[in-house]
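Practice problem: predict the structure.
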Amino acid sequence: ISELDELRRDAYDNSKLSKERMKVLHDKHIQRKSFEPNEQVLLYNSRLHLFPGKLRSRWSGPYVVKTVFPYGAVEITNPQNGNTFKVNGQRLKHFLAKLSHEDTSIPLEDPIYSHGSALFIPLWFHFYVHNPFSHL
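Answer:
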């Protein structure tokens, strides 16, 4: 009977060590995110994970952070309808504001082609582009 108790104790100790190692590995890969009140965030929709659409985004929002609780819970508000609910902070990511296309402008200049530049296009390429079926 004492051998059985000793084997049981060894199995318990091995299980405890294994769980501690797994926790260290798990915690190493978790990304710690900190959120502030009135910050905009996106919410991960786990239902879309089960039935994915190819081009459908699994993130919805933006939502506004109302309260940050200890141990990773975050209370967020939908600014469109005012609904407030608590979620795990692991399901949130920071929202980066969209760039409006009207505000951005890129000045383009005409390229300068010369025989000495790297942009020189060979004569055979011009011929092939203008007569693509000439080799048939």
